[in-house]
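Shipment paperwork, digital attachment
Item: protein structure file
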Amino acid sequence: MILPEQLRDIILKSGFITPSDFDGAVKTSQELGKSLTDILIYRGLISEDVLGQLIAEYYSVSYVKLSHKIIPQEVLSLIPEEAATSFRMIPFSREADTLFLAMEDPSDLEGREFAKRKTGLKIQIFFATPADLSSAIGQYKRNIKDIFKSIISENISKTSSIVDVEKLAADYWEQFGWDRTNGKPKEETLKKLGIK
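Attachment content:
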């Protein structure tokens, strides 16, 4: 993971931000408890794409913007959602025996090794910003409606009443991070998806 001192060196060497602007962003970041990169971008000191390019260059990998990519389900299924969330990585493309993997921290050897062992493919690493990666990880949930239909249809014959069906649906909603009492996502689900 990139340390604040390293980020400072990377950004200041690029000439995009003055030392005083950077130090002011660090102070605001600490006061608000927000990430430094979020403050830099929010203040308009640097764009997310430029920051992504600079960090990718630091890691000697390519930068990928995932926000407009629809990742094929067969590619997503190569890395389980739990691992993608835990290692902060997501597969976004595959060509022959090579898997293209976006990571928040390209220096995470454990994540790289997991992907290599899990897929049996060569891994080409890319850097993705934390916000972009969180958004892309949300694609694991895009077929949730189909999953629920399948689960309910499989289990409907096992239930004896509508109450059983409602309970079954509520149990699965909770499993996927939704609050069964109000039908809304739980706070930790929103945080995990980068929404809060």
